[in-house]
Amino acid sequence: MKAFARQLFKTFLFAAIISIAANCIYYSITQKGADYDKALPKVIEGIVLLNIIVFVMSLPSLFLVNQVYWNNLPVRLILYFSGSIVFLITSLLLNLPPQSKVVYLLTGGIFLVVHAVFYYLWVKKRA
Questions:
Q1: Would you say residue 36 has pLDDT above 90?
Q2: How far apart are CA 32 and CA 106, in angstroms?
Q3: What is the rounded CA–CA span in Å between residue 93 and residue 1?
Q4: What is the pTM of this model?
């Protein structure tokens, strides 16, 4: 259980760092001439909060410590990836301005990719 929780926390950390960098780059490209000193701390805070939301939505993956769930591939995939996929679908369905939608999708997509990399490493390690 501890190893799996540690892996999920590492996913959160890596995804938060990468999504902060990607969204800051996106912000600087789209908001040329803006005052970055005041805006970037707010952007970073927002991205961290979005990553916390995706992290909380991914907590059902902790049920995979139960061997019955782990050995059932469809259940394993649903439990592991459902949180970030539901976040992405919800981001698409929300009535947001296009720039905000890009930030949500970028953050959720990065979390999903990092989560998938850790899933691949976890499966490879257990095989």
A1: no
A2: 20
A3: 34
A4: 0.92
